[in-house]
Structures are given as structure tokens and as C-alpha cells.
Write a structure and sequence with these properties.
The complex is a heterodimer of chains A (345) and B (509). With 345 residues, chain A is mostly helical. Chain A has one domain: ABC transporter involved in vitamin B12 uptake, BtuC. Chain A is built from 13 helices and 2 strands; from the N terminus they run ααααααββααααααα. Chain A has a two-stranded antiparallel sheet. In chain A, a hairpin with a 2-residue loop joins strand 1 and strand 2. In chain A, helix 6 packs across helix 10. Chain A is globular. Chain A starts with 6 loop residues before the first helix and ends with a helix. By secondary structure, chain B is an alpha/beta fold. Chain B folds into 3 domains: 236 residues, Rossmann fold; 167 residues, P-loop containing nucleotide triphosphate hydrolases (Rossmann fold); 68 residues, no CATH class. Chain B contains 18 helices and 22 strands. In chain B, the strands form 5 sheets. Chain B has a 6-stranded mixed β-sheet, sandwiched between helices. A 6-stranded mixed β-sheet of chain B has the order 16-19-20-13-21-22, with helices on both faces. The chains are: A mainly alpha (345), B alpha/beta (509). Chains A and B meet through helix 1, helix 8 and helix 9 of A and helix 10, helix 11 and strand 18 of B.
Chain lengths: 345, 509
């Protein structure tokens, strides 16, 4: 007892702590760069700018979900419903974004400005999220069960609404997922490269989420609840309302992801986003978000998503079978959690 | 060594981080007797018994049981030697049956190694019948009353046919009728040559049942006496009779108007009819034994648990408090008893832990002002002398005393009028303790009103202007500083406050 309170001992402890903290904080970045370098050595195609832009475009949908899921996990919750909420938002939004002349239009002759499907997708997401949050905060249902229920119910409603793809979307709608801006980056023998809209959406959302988590009262409350819910309550926080808010944001982002994905694939399909919730959870966990609550960052989650994205892309380029890909991905998730558990000890 | 002694514990020492729980304790228990172990909260009774039960390993000392030197590393080893223990905190497995709980880990097996349920239930029935406990072996534990749960634990301890049974406050949860039943069981155990060590706070019980009494105080052995050669008054004196050193008396502060008035606060079955006033500049100490309802009163006032009846008046206004947020709005602050469980957010940095209750103060146009937060952190760090390398340090890496200072700072930053401190110096080192005492004096001088719950009598006596003593959920007495002594408080806490006078007279006869 006495020995740890001498100044020298304190300094030693903190230096070691600081070093450990450094490694802990940046281990994931180091792993990412190692993978990046490895892939570029193994495959010539990997470093091609178009391929790299592709990787980011591919992770943008899961990335959006993962940002919401990260906040949920920081409160010591979980959200299994995001893939299904994505699909529900996608089919509703797409049905309101079809060209009026499309032969199989859900509402023939209806022509709405693109803002309508956008708002509908976001609203559906928020409603699902508020239901999740209320079940958890007011009815004290474990997050796992509440969102498992929502996962099944939302998927059911999506199929009920349209059991086949809702296609024939307007060009404006398709621009959300397929468009690029700033087409100024020259590539030899090809049209210049631009920045995909989904990537811009992801960047804006990620930065806003980061600022919210770190610079607003609400953000710090999210960490406090995950750090010690009872202490947060006694400190005067309205824990129930904050939790509902967090699940609502997660729902909102799932809805937004549904909009982006339906636009990228050019149709709203009830089977979209199956398993995305697991990729999102994996991104968060690989990025250092602790399932025991109170710990997690947005940039960590984005790197987690990038690791999964680079892994998928690289293994594709190397012609590794899809079966092996899932095995490798699964192992990485488990290893990430083992590391997380060890540092909590 | 006396032939008749079944258990001899010699020079037992045990320390936990920051606390010397036991130092060189000796205990000798005669074969076939009922030996009471007494002492205040934190005297070391439970620690000593947990060493005997293999839960703790002593730092030094030796144990001789039935004439053999033994080392007891696990509860399993204790059971094999013939020692079983009934713990103060009940730990039933709620969704299993009574029979499954009693025979957990030694279930009778039938064919193919499967559990023989019929034999399990039959054996349990025989055991319960023998002890005259009317509980169905197939009842689910969670459906039993607390008293019946306690009876099952007692039956379980007896079912091992141990030669030594330790009972740690077995009557804290049961009614008088069941106490009588328990005493019958203990006496019949004694007839069968079983030795019982009985931990209790309750004076009456000791003189009804014990042959010998050992008193511990501050982790040291005070005396072992035959029950027939002592009385309540002597026991109380032995339990509290320490010199009042290490005291940090409260400095004089002007005492002002009433800021908090609690009237007939009741939480059914937990707290009954508690009333008191608190004035500006005053420190009101709340004393009482473990489980007397001290924390429960505070939880009611602060809106953590619903109160059934009662009125709370703050600065002359009747106030409804339903949540801690309401309490904070009304100028209350609560430093909780269990720092880890309800205080710190371990994985978060010092900054968040310090500012979490006062975040609106640092908001500018909807965003938290990092510079203001840093200035506040620096001010608080120097005001409370918090030792932390930076505001980004995780709080779990600070020492207990520094964690506590961060939590004190958390509440001071809400600018409260009324501070409630539940065991503010438990488990922290002497230096930090003194600083917290000094700070309390200072806050009282600044016109804050303070309620301090403490299990340490010297702290209560040193710091309080008035002392409210809780006993079994009720107010056992309220003392002015000048009238309070360790003895009078202990008497009120053990439920002998009212007849203390009578006993004094009896003694002088």
C-alpha cells in the first residue's frame, strides 16, 4: 500500500499505464496498416485507386449502422435489429421513389420529390429505434431480446409490404447510392475518379457522431450510463430517456443505411441487409468498443469496418473461397474480444 | 493446551489493502459449547470466521482443530474437517428447490449417474422434520420468505453433520418465534456435542444462549469471558472501550435555520417513522449497526427508492422527490456508501467522473467547453489535493482516497446546500480521511448542512453536532454532541437506550 504512494512508484505506474494505454489505443490502427501493406504485396489490383474507393464504398452502409451500434454498445446494450430495420426502410423508401412510368410501380403514376422517401426511411428507422429503446428502458426487457424481436418483426413487415424487389427508381434516388462528386482525380486510361456520395454521408455522420459523443452533454451521458448505470442515475441523469435516444439514433442510422443501400443496388428488397447487424457489431468490437460498456470510439469503429472491408476485398482479390472468408472473419472477431477482455482485467 | 478445547486460533493476522482487519487475534473455543463472538461493525468477527471457513487465507497465525494443526484453504477443506458456516449474507440459488439447495454439490446419485430426485427429496424431508422446520423440500427457493430462506441455510449447515458450526448473525432476518426455534435447534446440537460459534450484535440473545463470550475490537482480541460472569454493560464497555485517538474534531461553525426536515418517513418493512431536522452549518451524524436502516433512510430522501409515507421539507417548502434528479434540483447531494458499485464509473476518465452531475455548467451553445472543463478540473484538483496525473486518467487507476475525493468534487460542483455522505471515509487511508474531515468542517462553516452516516464511533463523535442513532429501522435516539458517548450510542444502537438508566441503577445495587 505504502509503496505505491511514493512519487517515484506513482510515476512508474503511470508510465507503464501510459505505454499500455498507447498500445491499447493504437493497436487496431497498427493491425489495419499491417493488413493494408500485406494485401498490397499479395495483390497488384489492391492498391488501384478504383479498388480502394470501392472498399470504402462497400463499407459505407455497414459503417453507418456500426456508428449507431457503437453508441448502443457503449451504454452496455446491443442492437440486433439494424439489418432488418434497414430492409424495412429500404422497401418503403423505394416504393415512394419509383419512376411514375415504371411497369411494376407500387403506386402507379405517383411522382414524389426525393425528400419524401428520404424522410420516410429516416422516420421508419427512428420509430423502430424508439420502440427498441422503450422496451428496454421502460419495460426493462434485456436489449438482446428486445432487438431480437424487432429484428424478426421488421423483417416480417418488409416482406409483408413487398415480397419482391421494388425497382425502377428515379435517377435522383439512385444518385444517393451510386453518384459521385468531385470527379477530378485523374486515373490513366479511365474517366477521372470522384468521391462516392455514400462515403460522404458516412464521413459526415461519423464526424457528427464523434463530436456528439465527445463534446455534448448527451454524448458524455451515454458513456456514463455504460460506465456505471447506477452511479449515472444517482448523479441525476434521466437514464431511461437517454437510452431511448441512443436506440433512436441507431434506428435512424439503420434507416439511412436502408436508403443508401436500396439506392446503390437500384431497388428496395425485403431481403437487404441480412447479417449486417453482425458485421456492424463486429466492426465496433474490433474497433475497441467494450461489450461491458463505457468504452468505445467512432474512429475505432470506422477502422474496424475498414478492417472487415479490406479483408473481404483482399480475400476476394486473392480468390479465397467465400467459406474461408467467413471463417477468417469470425476468428478475427473472437480474437478482438479476447484482447478486449484481457485489457479489462 | 486445555484438552477440552476443540478449536484454537493463534496470532491470526489479516490485512486488506488499506486496512488491518485482524492483528494477532487469539480465540479458543471449548468443545461442546456455544461461543458468542461480539464486537462493533468492522471489529473483525466475520473476517476471523471466514478464515476458519477457508474463504480468506490469514497472513499469519495458526489454527489447531481437534488437536491437529490444520490449514484451511477452501470451504471444501473446512467441510471435510467438520466445520460449516451460515453466512450473514444469504446466497440461495433462487430458481432451484429447497432440496437442491441443501444438497448442492453432494446430490444422491442413482442409476447411470443421474440425480436420484426421490432420495434427494426424501433425505431433505427427514432433515427438515428432524429440525422441525415446516418447509416443503420441493418449494422453489425464491418463493420462500427471507426468514424461511434463513432456516434453509441453517438446515443446510447442520446437514453436513459438522462438529463445529459457525453462525454469522443468523437472526438478523427472522422473527422472534423463529429465533426461539433456532435456539432450540442450537441447544439440541449442543446436546449432541456439536460446538457452535455464534456471531451477534444482540445482547439478549447472547445471555440466553452463550456459554462463553469473546469480544473483538478493531481487529484485536479484547477478552474471552464466561457469559455467567459478565453483563450487558460490561460487554458494551469492552466493545467500544478504545481511546479516542486519530480524531479530527469538527471546527465550530455557526448553526443556522432548518434546511431539511424529514417527518415520519416510512418504507414498509425497512424504515419506520423516521423524523429529524437538519440545520445550516450542522453536521448530523447517523450511527447504527449494519442493517439498522441508515442507508435506506437516505435512499428514501434522495429518491432512489420510493417511500411509502412521510414528508420531506426543504428550506420550508414541502417537496416531492421521486428521482435523484429531483433531489439534485432541490440542492441535495449524495456520496454513496459503495464507491465501486454506485459511485465511480471505473472505465471512464477522472474528468467525466468529476463533472457528470454538473455538465450543464460547462455548456456553451450546446457544446461542452473543453477549456472550461480543464480549468474546473485544475481548480478541483488543487482544492481537494487530488493526486492524478491528468484529467484523462481512468479513475479506476487512482487510489481509493483519490477516487473518493473525485466523487466529493463531483457533488461539490453541483453547488448543493445539503450534502449526504454515506460512510465517506470507509476503506481510504488515514491521510485522505483527515482531508475529508477537514473539508467537511470547512463546508459546514460555509453554511452547508451535512448528514454523515458512519460505522465508526470515533468519527461520529468527532465530527457530529448531533447524532441520530438508528435501531432496526427506527430512530433509536438523538443525542446532542455534549451528551453523546460511545456507550450511550452503542446502547441506543443495540436497542438498550431506553432502559440504560435502569441498568445503571441495577449495577450500583
Amino acid at each position: 500500500m505504502a509503496s505505491t504512494t511514493t512519487p517515484q512508484a506513482l510515476e512508474r505506474t503511470f508510465n507503464r499505464e501510459w505505454f499500455n494505454a498507447f498500445i491499447r489505443k493504437y493497436a487496431i490502427v497498427i493491425i489495419f496498416f499491417a493488413m493494408f501493406v500485406g494485401m498490397s504485396l499479395l495483390s497488384d489490383a489492391f492498391l488501384h485507386p478504383r479498388n480502394l474507393v470501392n472498399v470504402i464504398r462497400q463499407i459505407s452502409v455497414v459503417g453507418l449502422i456500426a456508428i449507431g451500434v457503437t453508441m448502443v454498445i457503449i451504454t452496455m446494450g446491443i442492437d440486433l435489429s439494424s439489418g432488418s430495420v434497414l430492409a424495412l426502410a429500404a422497401v418503403f423508401a423505394a416504393s415512394l421513389g419509383q419512376s411514375p412510368g415504371w411497369h411494376d410501380a407500387k403506386y402507379p403514376g405517383l411522382m414524389l420529390p426525393v425528400i419524401v422517401p428520404i424522410l420516410v426511411a429516416l422516420t421508419i428507422g427512428v420509430v423502430c429505434g424508439v420502440i427498441n429503446g422503450s422496451l428496454i428502458a421502460r419495460f426493462k426487457i434485456p436489449p438482446f431480446i428486445a432487438t431480437l424481436g424487432m429484428m424478426t418483426v421488421a423483417r416480417g413487415f418488409a416482406l409483408l409490404y413487398s415480397d419482391r424487389p421494388v425497382s425502377g427508381l428515379t435517377d435522383t434516388y439512385n444518385f444517393i447510392g451510386q453518384g459521385e462528386i468531385l470527379k477530378v482525380f485523374p486515373i490513366p486510361n479511365q474517366p477521372p475518379l470522384g468521391i462516392p456520395i455514400p462515403v460522404i454521408i458516412l464521413a459526415v455522420v461519423a464526424i457528427s457522431a464523434h463530436v456528439m459523443l465527445n463534446r455534448t452533454r448527451f454524448g458524455r451521458h451515454i458513456y456514463a450510463i455504460g460506465g456505471n448505470e447506477q452511479a449515472a442515475l444517482i448523479s441525476g441523469l434521466n437514464v431511461g430517456r437517454i437510452k431511448i435516444g441512443v436506440y433512436a439514433i441507431a434506428g435512424l442510422l439503420a434507416g439511412l443505411a436502408g436508403l443508401v443501400l436500396s439506392s446503390r443496388v437500384g431497388s428496395g428488397q425485403p431481403g437487404l441487409g441480412v447479417g449486417y447487424e453482425l458485421d456492424a457489431i463486429a466492426s465496433a468490437v474490433i474497433g475497441g468498443t467494450s461489450l461491458s460498456g463505457g468504452v468505445g470510439t467512432i474512429w475505432g469503429t470506422i477502422i474496424g469496418a475498414l478492417i472487415i472491408g479490406v479483408l473481404n476485398n483482399g480475400l476476394d482479390l486473392l480468390n479465397v473461397s467465400a467459406y474461408w472468408q467467413t471463417i477468417i472473419k469470425g476468428s478475427i472477431i473472437v480474437v478482438a474480444v479476447i484482447i478486449d477482455e484481457r485489457k479489462n482485467r | 493446551m486445555d484438552e477440552n478445547v476443540i478449536l484454537q486460533m493463534e496470532n491470526i493476522s489479516k490485512s486488506f489493502p488499506g486496512v488491518n482487519a485482524l492483528s494477532n487475534v487469539n480465540l479458543a473455543v471449548r468443545h461442546g459449547t456455544i461461543h458468542a463472538l461480539m464486537g462493533e461493525n468492522g471489529a473483525g468477527k466475520s473476517t476471523l470466521m471466514k478464515i476458519l471457513d477457508g474463504i480468506y487465507t490469514p497472513d499469519s497465525g495458526q489454527i489447531t482443530f481437534q488437536g491437529q494443526p490444520v490449514s484451511i484453504d477452501t470451504t471444501h477443506a473446512a467441510l471435510k474437517l467438520g466445520i460449516s458456516m451460515i453466512h450473514q449474507e444469504l446466497s440461495p440459488i433462487p430458481y432451484m428447490t429447497v432440496a437442491e439447495n441443501i444438497f448442492l454439490g453432494r446430490e444422491p446419485l442413482g442409476k447411470y449417474g443421474l440425480i436420484d430426485k426421490r432420495k434427494l427429496n426424501a433425505d431433505t424431508k427427514v432433515l427438515l422434520d428432524r429440525l422441525e422446520i415446516g418447509i416443503n423440500p420441493t418449494s422453489i427457493m425464491k418463493d420462500l420468505s427471507v426468514a424461511n430462506t434463513q432456516m434453509v441455510e441453517i438446515a443446510k449447515a447442520i446437514s453436513y453433520d459438522s462438529s463445529l458450526i459457525i453462525m454469522d448473525e443468523p437472526t438478523s432476518a427472522i422473527t422472534e418465534r423463529e429465533v426461539a426455534h433456532l435456539f432450540r435447534m442450537i441447544r439440541s446440537l449442543k446436546e449432541k456435542d456439536v460446538t457452535v460459534i455464534y456471531i451477534t450484535h444482540k445482547m439478549d440473545e447472547v445471555f440466553q444462549i452463550a456459554d462463553d463470550i469473546t469480544v473483538l475490537r478493531d481487529g484485536k482480541h479484547v477478552a474471552t469471558v464466561p457469559a455467567s460472569q459478565t453483563n450487558k454493560h460490561n460487554l458494551i464497555t469492552m466493545m467500544v472501550g478504545r481511546e479516542l485517538t486519530e480524531m479530527f474534531p469538527k471546527e465550530v461553525a455557526p448553526i443556522g435555520e432548518i434546511v431539511l426536515s424529514v417527518h415520519n418517513l416510512t418504507r414498509e418493512g425497512i424504515v419506520e417513522d423516521v423524523s429529524f431536522d437538519l440545520r445550516r452549518g450542522e453536521i448530523l451524524g447517523i450511527a447504527g449497526l449494519m442493517g439498522a436502516g441508515r442507508t435506506e433512510v437516505i435512499e428514501g430522501i434522495f429518491g432512489i427508492h420510493k417511500i411509502d409515507t412521510g414528508e420531506i421539507t426543504i428550506k420550508g417548502r414541502k417537496t416531492q422527490i421521486h428521482t435523484p434528479a429531483d433531489a439534485i434540483k432541490n440542492g441535495l447531494a449524495l456520496l454513496t456508501e459503495d464507491r465501486k458499485l454506485t459511485g465511480i464509473m471505473g472505465v471512464l476518465p477522472v474528468r467525466d467522473n468529476m463533472m457528470i452531475a454538473s455538465l450543464p455548467n460547462y455548456e456553451k451553445r450546446g457544446f461542452l467547453d473543453g477549456r472550461l472543463i480543464e480549468t474546473t478540473y485544475k481548480q478541483e484538483k488543487s482544492r481537494l489535493d487530488i493526486k492524478s496525473p491528468s484529467m484523462h486518467q481512468l479513475i479506476k487507476l487512482l487510489s481509493g482516497g483519490n477516487q473518493q475525493k473525485v466523487l466529493v468534487s463531483r457533488w461539490l460542483l453541483t453547488s448543493p446546500d445539503i450534502l449526504i455522505l454515506d460512510e465517506p471515509t470507509r476503506g481510504i487511508d488515514v491521510g485522505a480521511k483527515a482531508e475529508i474531515h477537514r473539508l467537511m468542517s470547512k463546508l459546514a462553516q460555509d453554511g452547508k448542512a451535512i448528514i454523515m452516516i458512519s460505522s465508526e464511533l470515533p468519527e461520529i463523535l468527532g465530527m457530529s453536532d448531533r447524532i441520530l442513532v438508528m435501531h432496526e429501522g427506527r430512530v433509536g435516539g438523538i443525542f446532542e454532541r455534549k451528551d453523546a458517548t460511545q456507550e450511550s450510542i452503542m446502547q441506543a444502537a443495540t436497542g438498550h437506550g431506553l432502559d440504560a438508566q435502569a441498568r445503571q441503577e441495577e449495577m450500583t445495587v
